[in-house]
Structure prediction request, 56 residues.
Amino acid sequence: MSAVVYATCPDCDTPLPITVTAEPAGRADDGTLQVVVLSDKTEVEAHSLTCNGLAG
Prediction:
């Protein structure tokens, strides 16, 4: 299961997509389900390298 959430750049207000994926990771010793959450911040990292810091 995955979803896309948006983080807004604090410098220029550009919405940046972050793909969040939840994967089942088996059961813990007490029987509760375990979930691993992975987030792909490639777009955010790429933007942080190119952002000129000017709002608007």
